[in-house]
From TrEMBL:
Name of the protein described by the UniProt record: Formate hydrogenlyase subunit 4
Residues that span the membrane, as ranges: 16-41, 62-88, 94-114, 126-144, 204-226, 238-258, 270-288
Keyword Transmembrane helix carried by entry: yes
Keyword Manganese: no
Keyword line: Membrane, Transmembrane, Transmembrane helix
């Protein structure tokens, strides 16, 4: 009994640490997504310190004046995503709830609640993302039936590697990143065009960072599921999982920035190409064994 309580407490502590770490990284990733394209083009950009201070002001103000309405729903969606997804290891307390389709829909709904309006054409762009999430769910059910969400999938692939499934998931993640890239700063500005209050606009930008972090973490988990550490890996496995988390997020940010620089975001042709590759790899892996 005492051992079980200890395991539960460790899972809760890991979840809290994961949430705190990802909330900090969300600001850094948001700065990278907004500033790296300009920096690579030789233009001056603001420092990441300013972004972190802005986020700190948001969380301090949130303690004093809680959010309400649509922004509160968007923040809830983002925080729930960061808590549920396996980040460092598969041992976080809610990682068994990290179903790719459900988590993906939660993030997309959160994006819809971010501001009083949507980016023009955003609703139509979400349709391919939902279809790709359904495809991802179907491929997992086909190649790894009975797995318990992303956490169970990561654990299974550690024990029984499935190159076909891993390649298919990576292709799905890339297709999702192309069809539904992280929100740009300009996108958030358009969504907030009806807001005049400066504090509300800054809060919405911080919430957008959280949602972008959750979306990229989902894509990273799909692309590299074996990089997530096992809950039974001990201290060494935890540290390796932490390092792998940093590498996974850095890779997803680099791919997102690269797609933006190459003007390949929301490319229907590339989305269909990688969706087809995912299907072929999954079928080849399924029937080749």
């Amino acid at each position: 009994m005492g051992h079980e309580i200890g395991l539960i407490l460790m899972s809760v502590l890991e979840s809290l640490f994961q949430l705190g770490l990802l909330l900090v990284l969300a600001s850094v990733m948001g700065w990278c997504l907004d500033s790296l394209p300009f920096w690579l083009a030789g233009r001056s950009v603001g420092t990441v310190r300013f972004r972190l201070l802005q986020t700190a002001r948001f969380w301090r103000s949130l303690v004093q004046v809680p959010l309400g309405g649509r922004p509160a729903l968007a923040l809830t969606a983002g925080v729930l995503t960061l808590v549920c997804l396996p980040a460092v290891t598969t041992g976080s307390v809610l990682s068994s709830l990290a179903d790719p389709l459900v988590i993906g829909l939660v993030v997309l709904l959160g994006r819809g609640f971010l501001g009083p309006g949507l980016v023009p054409g955003e609703a139509a762009r979400l349709v391919p993302a939902v279809l790709l999430l359904c495809l991802t769910e179907a491929l997992i059910a086909l190649a790894a039936p009975g797995t318990d969400g992303l956490s169970g999938l990561c654990a299974m692939l550690h024990i029984e590697p499935e190159p076909g499934l891993e390649g298919a998931l990576a292709a799905c993640a890339l297709a999702l990143g192309i069809a539904c890239p992280p929100l740009r700063s300009d996108d958030v500005t358009q969504m907030l065009s009806g807001l005049r209050d400066r504090h509300e606009r800054e809060a919405a930008r911080s919430i957008a960072d959280v949602l972008n972090c959750g979306w990229l973490l989902l894509l990273g988990d799909l692309a590299l599921p074996v990089s997530v550490g096992l809950a039974q890996g001990g201290v060494q496995g935890w540290w390796l999982g932490l390092l792998a988390l940093g590498g996974r997020l850095a890779l997803t940010v680099a791919v997102a920035v690269g797609l933006r620089l190459m003007a390949q975001e929301r490319s229907a042709r590339l989305t269909a190409l990688f969706a087809g590759v995912a299907l072929l790899l999954a079928l080849a892996g399924r029937f080749g064994t």
